């Protein structure tokens, strides 16, 4: 996986979260789902900066959740497309990503991310 291109894709998704907030009557930067989406994207970016060979399993599971919920939460927006681009890189470059259990109800419980 090309680290620089992947970080650019994450940055694009982060920028799109700001664009959605700026253009929307419904989304706010300090409310869900924007808050958790930005948190997970920033955690993923930090993991890539630290060492792109081993990304935390919890961050991957959280990103899996963000990818799945983007179809409902950000349907037909550039943010949905940007998140799909990020998850496509994970899906194509990390074999375990395909079989991950979603974080869902584990989010924020037990081991902190």
Question: Topology, please?
Answer:
Layout lengths: L2 H21 L10 H17 L6 H17 L4 H16 L20
Number of folding domains?
1
Helix content: 55-70%
Global geometry: globular
What is the residue-mean pLDDT, rounded to a whole number?
88
Residue share in β-strands: under 5%
Distance between the termini: 23 Å
Tell me how many strands there are: 0
Biggest beta sheet attributes:
none
Low-pLDDT regions: none
Number of helices: 4
Order of helices and strands: HHHH
Structural class, please? mainly alpha
Instruction: Provide the gyration radius in Å.
Output: 13 Å
Describe this structure in words.
It is a single chain. With 113 residues, the protein is mainly alpha-helical. It is built from four helices and no strands. It has one domain. Helix 1 (3-23) runs antiparallel to helix 2 (34-50), helix 2 (34-50) runs antiparallel to helix 3 (57-73) and helix 3 (57-73) runs antiparallel to helix 4. The longest helix has 21 residues, at 3-23. The chain starts with a helix and ends in a 20-residue tail after the last helix.
Would you summarize the structure shown here?
By secondary structure, the chain is mostly helical. It has 4 helices and no strands. The chain has one domain (3-103).
Provide the descriptors you would attach to this structure in a database record.
single chain, 113 residues, 4 helices
